[in-house]
Amino acid sequence: MTSLTADVERWSPYSKTRSTIDEQPLSADEVDKLTRYWEASLYLCLGMLYLKENPLLQEPLKKEHLKARLLGHWGSDAGQSFTYIHFNRMIKKYNLNAFVISGPGHGAPGLISNFYLEGLYSEVYPNKSEDVEGMQRFFKQFSFPGGIGSHMTPETPGSLHEGGELGYSISHAFGAVYDHPQTIALTIVGDGEAETGPLATSWHSNKFLNPITDGAVLPVLHLNGYKINNPTILARITEDELTKLMEGYGWTPYVVAGSNIEEMHQAMAGTVEKCVQEILAYQKEARESGKVFRPRWPMIILRSPKGWSAPRKVEGHYLEGHWRAHQVPLPKVASDPEQMKVLEAWMRSYHPEKLFGKEGKLIPELRALAPEGNSRMSANPITNGGIIRKPLKLEHFQNWAVKVEKPGTTMGPSMANFAEYLTMVVRDNPTNFRVMGPDETESNKLSAIYKASKKVWVNGYLPEDEDGGNLEPQGRVMEMLSEHTVEGWLEGYILSGRHGMLNSYEPFIHIIDSMVNQHAKWIEKAAEVSWRRAVSSLNILLTSTVWRQDHNGFTHQDPGFLDVVANKSPEVVRIYLPPDANCLLSTMDHCFKSSNYVNVIVADKQEHLQYLNMEDAVAHCSKGLGIWDWASNDAGAEPDLVMASCGDVVTQEALAATALLREYLPELKIRFVNVVDLFKLQPNGYHPHGLTAAEYSALFTSDRPVVFNFHSYPWLVHRMTYKREGQHRMHVRGYKEKGNIDTPLELAIRNEADRYSLAILAIDNLKDVLGNRGAGPREKLLGERIRSLEYAYETGMDPEIFTGWKWPY
Amino acid sequence: MTSLTADVERWSPYSKTRSTIDEQPLSADEVDKLTRYWEASLYLCLGMLYLKENPLLQEPLKKEHLKARLLGHWGSDAGQSFTYIHFNRMIKKYNLNAFVISGPGHGAPGLISNFYLEGLYSEVYPNKSEDVEGMQRFFKQFSFPGGIGSHMTPETPGSLHEGGELGYSISHAFGAVYDHPQTIALTIVGDGEAETGPLATSWHSNKFLNPITDGAVLPVLHLNGYKINNPTILARITEDELTKLMEGYGWTPYVVAGSNIEEMHQAMAGTVEKCVQEILAYQKEARESGKVFRPRWPMIILRSPKGWSAPRKVEGHYLEGHWRAHQVPLPKVASDPEQMKVLEAWMRSYHPEKLFGKEGKLIPELRALAPEGNSRMSANPITNGGIIRKPLKLEHFQNWAVKVEKPGTTMGPSMANFAEYLTMVVRDNPTNFRVMGPDETESNKLSAIYKASKKVWVNGYLPEDEDGGNLEPQGRVMEMLSEHTVEGWLEGYILSGRHGMLNSYEPFIHIIDSMVNQHAKWIEKAAEVSWRRAVSSLNILLTSTVWRQDHNGFTHQDPGFLDVVANKSPEVVRIYLPPDANCLLSTMDHCFKSSNYVNVIVADKQEHLQYLNMEDAVAHCSKGLGIWDWASNDAGAEPDLVMASCGDVVTQEALAATALLREYLPELKIRFVNVVDLFKLQPNGYHPHGLTAAEYSALFTSDRPVVFNFHSYPWLVHRMTYKREGQHRMHVRGYKEKGNIDTPLELAIRNEADRYSLAILAIDNLKDVLGNRGAGPREKLLGERIRSLEYAYETGMDPEIFTGWKWPY
């Protein structure tokens, strides 16, 4: 196995200190101060992990000073703190506007300790004051019930990225600096995180950053060496490979590697300064020339021992520089007096008394190293984006109304019409709003927006791009074939105080289930934090939906994102399924004006029947659901049947089924109900939008059969209505995971969500009213269903009864 | 913008042909034959896209010969076919065992056409014979109702990777060649796909491939240049960056770039041969020396025009070499006589009559270029893995039984005990079974398996790895901090005829929602294909579950993967929540023996109360759910209350609630039901495991209140039981998205899934039985709940009543 070790040994953090930059910019006094400042931070990290009392070790350490349950991670703290402190120096020297993003999970102490040292933490939480009592509370609250988590959670000022679920640090950082030309995001990327797919591709974000109008991201790839229980891939490939990888991603990597603290300070100081100078120089060049180019932006590869400054070995096993330093290094400290001694000696080695004095406040000599006021990264308003958020400029959406003279008689392009409205939003909010998508904006019929602004592309151009390429270095539309990256950009953009929208094919939105979950969790917790201001909602427009994925086949049929979203907090999630163009406009306008929500809007991109004029659409969407009188013949009385729908394609089928029933069985009294706002179905105690029992019964009755045609998997409706009176009479149809290469009608038939199946279902549940009179119509409907399928198999197309269907007056 | 174009123009496929390898290995005759073979394939591609009649153009093309709906993609077909044909030459020359993976979406014609040319397609589907009639059917079926999709769907022989959802080609390829030392996976990676996160990190799979015992992957990064409507990132960065990127990933890239067909044949022939020689040489070196090293394996960067061989311009717009060639190039061919003429001329330019003669069968001169029999990539049995699949060798799982004398009185490590059984599986199936996980196998208490085999690591080693590193070049455990990659490996490993298991933290399994969805869809369709044999089930063991993520906080609490899985076909998905060690053993053994399922098993990793001895556990798991007599006092009669549970932690709380109720209200008759197999709850018509109405009522009664404590989000149970008699008396508790930094009991209380809340819920629903007698106990329970919370806030711990609780006899 020689060949697996040869290249690597010299590349351990315990080899000679190595640095791409050869400067020694610091005086001995500066090195000493930086070291002591860093030690102050590390002391606080250990305090957070271990102590609930005796915070300054003013008396000998005893068991009762220790937390009963030891939580949080030590492994990445020292390297993160080291990076932060060195960037502080740059902020002061160059008067930078910067904030920090911490990628590694559970390593928050490395930064929270700094936020406390520079005073911000106490300003935000006065009872975590800069004195012994405050420090004791600061320690105890960490990873403690009623306290704060071990990530950069919303409770932590200075954070807009929690970390923990790994992989989004780079895309969040880019999102936050787009259109913030003065801002630098110092972004610490864990080498565990760097193995994830989302992170691995997000390095390419540099091809979408405009050096004139956007800020900069300075990534620090922290080669900590280990994950929970494994070495990291990037820490074990050769230096040559790692450097090439970063160069291949388009960055200029600067290596800082070693464990000798003085030497590492010199190396890091020189390197960080070189990076800052390069960033400022590139920005100057672009901004003075007015010419966009793609710099090979600098980034830092920081290789330092995991758990740096811990004992190298404990009880015969490696600790510092090993995966054993990942979590709490001395887990038996409360039960093992030897471990407690090791801990006490270790903590005292930082000399807390010299750093914090008797009063427990960082001594002024060291405090002077940190920036002040809003120059502190912990205080950057970007990290509490609601503070700087301005509302979108929006013209009245009614100006884009589609004319509907009679409901259900004209076809119209709901999505392409919305695109015209969206063009206005893009045009009128040129530094405040972006549209994201994974290469599907054109396919999703939204390309009208290129009239206002094209797709940002800070990468190579070819002459043929003139032929409809719609690329420009300062576009407002962002497309990369990575749902993870575009979602990450959008989250970062929103959390830093701006607005935006993601458009995506419905079937592939599951790719970012987990990201949307985590964003919803962030929003929920952030809303509970008193000093955080509301940010714009995350607007996800799903199109190219399941019912028009007949031709792409089974892999493209999955409307289940709604099930995932519906599991998140009712305070945060909203789901809308507008049935036509005017409802889509009304819904999107509402979403753009909202804050602190995850809005999911499902609307197909193809031409559709139009139902409501603008006035009716606004009224319908405001209620969230309602009876469509023009499609009902129950004249306000108790109907025999309620036909209901939620979603555009399924509404057409439900209407067609209603028309068939009324044709074949004219004596039936049918009420037609359409649902736009899905959460209306839930009881009012479950979701803020939920109908009361009385409101619900007024629409759906309490005992008549309801045939409900739903866009997504049918059981989502059952899950929402299981408590409703008469729920056993609710018959829901939707996508039941039945598909292949189909025609649209064939796909609906496979899932029994077509007009014929719905009408048959209704007849089967109306025996109390119909007696035997349903048998003939039922036979006829069955026959028509079969003939439709035969036609599809013969021609590859749907019969005209489907493609040309209109509401029969 | 000069700087954005300078480097790129010379790097267009229309520049001079470029190749890293300078060989000209082909004779003029060979070039001619390869060209004609390729044209035969391209002719078939166009036929699939456009024609339903007149397959050989033996009469002039007319509108009625055209498909009414034009589907499928042309963009990547030519490049994929080109690659395939050149690899055929290598198979014949070096007698290789190879198969192909096609990453790009909807580009299947490029390969399916080849499968038809080499005869395999007609062997598998005799009515798609090698004659005019067969060719007509072959064309018509493509993207046609009742036919096949435009991906490499399960209906397509020679495929184990559908593509379409992009990003998994490399990880699937690696999975399929692990432990297949003789096999080479020719893997065509789209440059759109290459932008996805999962693909971007999967290049690192080469650090997990053992050149002695595994096969090889030859990736061909197809720089087609465009996605649907955008240039690709990798096609627009500089040559230098792209080469460095691939070298940084650890590969040796060989460039083949251009559009001149003769020159490209020479370049590709030389390059493919160089790659094959390198692969064989590395394997020889490692296998003869017995020493594992990590070769810089070769890979090919093929830059060719998108839609290669189409007209360069049509109607004044670029077609070949542009994104307009992505889908169907001439979309108006049926309505626009000019476009029809262009198509006819284009198709005739390939001279079908010379390629296929009058009979419609590839002429022997060309057929001789393809390999024969199972050497054809289309016929490799690996792509129908069930054929070569051997059952696992498994000792009786009962040998690992945990002793349980009295239910609910002893604690035991369910997961660590299962790890001992798993050690046997790993040991006894040394080339047939792998355990995958994202860096959590140790954390998940499964590290016992390192006794049988360690973690595979074909990357740098350091001396400190001796200190518990558990790494070796031939380990059976595979860990990379990318859920996407390990899941992709496992899918590839299973689909190529082997067995395995993924273990993961529950909260982060949502990261691969979409992958699991797609795998389930593959399995469902594959099971409908008569010639496909069953493959091993995809076994996903979820641990570090929500109820023990109290300390990691809100981001780590999400049990919603089950909702996603439950949306997939009932024929494919299975969900098990074994409550204790013996049930876990029984469940896992069952899963390992099963085939064609996605099995999801949820079990916590911490110590838990043990309930069932092995005999009872087997009986319980075989039924899937049942009454626990020892915890019930209804003595077989109608109970007052049914207390039910599904999941380990929640079972303990439900039992504790039962004990509290029986202590405070001894006259209550309580039946305790535990559910292991979640789908038992669904009606039997909905899922093959579903209980009949009578079976269900026999357990849950039809009218008594049921308090059901569920592991996951409670509404999943409601969704499954909404049709059940008495469902309105079903009160489900579970995780309701309420959490923060908590203790375990506090987390349960926040979600009302704790013993006190359950008992209170029961009392509130037993007024018919209890009258006012519940008021006092209710008060007491409320008090105890509050005191538990106070204790947690004070100490950070749970009271002993929780940590030491046992069933009271």
TrEMBL record, chains A, B:
InterPro entries for the chain: Phosphoketolase (IPR023962), THDP-binding (IPR029061), Transketo_C/PFOR_II (IPR009014), Xul5P/Fru6P_PKetolase (IPR005593), Xul5P/Fru6P_PKetolase_C (IPR018969), Xul5P/Fru6P_PKetolase_CS (IPR019790), Xul5P/Fru6P_PKetolase_N (IPR018970), Xul5P/Fru6P_PKetolase_ThDP_BS (IPR019789)
Domain Xylulose 5-phosphate/Fructose 6-phosphate phosphoketolase C-terminal: residue ranges: 605-807
HAMAP family: Phosphoketolase
Co-factor requirement: thiamine diphosphate
Protein name per Swiss-Prot or TrEMBL: Phosphoketolase
GO BP: any one term: carbohydrate metabolic process
Domain Xylulose 5-phosphate/Fructose 6-phosphate phosphoketolase N-terminal: 27-387
Keyword line: Lyase, Thiamine pyrophosphate
Any GO MF annotation of the entry: aldehyde-lyase activity
Record-stated family: Belongs to the XFP family.
